[in-house]
Write a structure and sequence with these properties.
By secondary structure, the chain is mainly α. Helices cover 71% and strands 0% of the residues. The chain has 5 helices and no strands.
C-alpha cells in the first residue's frame, strides 16, 4: 500500500470515529459532516492507491463515476450516494437554499455511518488484495 494511501485512510478513520462519538453525544450535524468526510477520504485513498488523479470535489457521485470509468467499483447504491451528497452542504451551512429535506436525527446519522462503514470495508478489502 502506498504511504499516501495510508495517510488518507488514517484521516478517514478519524472522521468515521468522530462521527460515531458525535452521534452518541446527540450532535447530529457534525456527525453527518464527519460521515461525509470519511466517505470522501476513503474514496480518495482508493484513487491514490490506483494511480488516479485526485479531483478537488466533495461530490461523491462524481467521484464514483470516475471510479466506474476506471473499472473500480464501490459497494454503494445510487440512493446511498444521493443521501451522502445531500448532507454535505446542509450539514455545514445554515442557509435556506441548501438545507436538506430532513432534520438531522439519530436515524439518519446511523444510516450515514452504516454507509461509511460499508465503503470503508470495501475499499480496505480492495486495497489489501
Amino acid at each position: 500500500m502506498k504511504e499516501e494511501t495510508k495517510q488518507w485512510l488514517q484521516y478517514a478513520n478519524e472522521n468515521l470515529k468522530s462521527a460515531k462519538i458525535l452521534v452518541e453525544s446527540f450532535l447530529y450535524n457534525p456527525s453527518l459532516q464527519n460521515s461525509q468526510q470519511a466517505i470522501e477520504k476513503y474514496i480518495k485513498a482508493y484513487f491514490i492507491e490506483n494511480g488516479l488523479k485526485l479531483r478537488k470535489t466533495h461530490n461523491i457521485l462524481s467521484l464514483n463515476e470516475t471510479l466506474k470509468q476506471n473499472n473500480l467499483f464501490l459497494d454503494v447504491s445510487d440512493d446511498e450516494i444521493d443521501l451522502i451528497d445531500s448532507i454535505y452542504l446542509s450539514s455545514k451551512y445554515p442557509f435556506g437554499s441548501v438545507l436538506a429535506d430532513f432534520e438531522p436525527d439519530e436515524n439518519i446519522c446511523l444510516e450515514c455511518l452504516s454507509i461509511a462503514t460499508k465503503i470503508k470495508e470495501g475499499i480496505e478489502y480492495e486495497i489489501t488484495i
